[in-house]
Amino acid sequence: MFENHMELRFRSISQNEALARSVAAAFAAQLNPTIEELTDIRTAVSEAVTNAIIHGYDNDPDKTVYMDCRIEGELVTIRVGDEGKGIEDVELARQPFYTTQPDMERSGMGFCVMEAFMDGVQVESAPGRGTTVTLQKWLKVEHHG
User: Fold this and answer.
1) Closest Cα partner for 27 from 76, 98, 75?
2) Which of 38, 60, 82, 99 is the most buried (most CB within 10 A)?
3) Which residues of 88-103 are buried (b: 16+ CB within 10 A; e: fewer)?
4) Of residues 17, 47, 79, 83, which has the active-site annotation?
């Protein structure tokens, strides 16, 4: 079974959302995924990183967002974490249109977007201790031979 792992740390600024999205997609590319699968990964990572920056850290550029990616066989697991303010009620936060920042455009759909594009989404959080979002995607790997 093919296995690989990598970690990335970056400043909590919106410009790094594109970096994280690209790195996650480039890492998953080792399994030769379809364009659609790569788009799904990019979209979900984008949401998770944006959540960490905006909600976890309130756009504080002095904070750090963590991402680690793992491949085990045909499963890609991407964890995005912050050490920000955390989520008091994870179940509530996962409801469509729930938001702590109602003035923001397209607010409240982040977790729904992640769930739509990934095969598994886990959220671990504690108030004052931060949040880790685990995204999982099974890739339909072509077996040649």
Assistant:
1) 76
2) 82
3) eeeeebbeeebeeeee
4) 47
* Cβ count near 142 (within 10 Å): 8
Distance separating alpha carbons of residues 21 and 3, to the nearest angstrom: 20
Task: Report the run of H or E that residue 64 belongs to, with start and end.
Answer: strand 64-72
Task: Give per-residue pLDDT as tens, 36-89.
Answer: 999 999 999 999 999 999 999 999 999 999 999 999 999 999 999 999 999 999
**Average pLDDT of the chain?**
92
The whole-model pTM stands at 0.92
Structural domains for the chain? 3-138 (3.30.565.10)
- Residue 107: count of CB within 10 angstroms of its CB: 15
Ramachandran angles phi, psi of 129, nearest 5° = -120, -10
Q: Which of 106, 115, 124, 142 is catalytic?
A: 106
Q: State the catalytic residue, choosing from 17, 51, 79, 83.
A: 51
Residue 51 annotated as catalytic: yes
Helix (H/G/I), strand (E/B), else coil: 22 = helix
Residue among 12, 3, 34 at smallest CA distance from 80: 12
- Is 115 part of the annotated catalytic residue set? no
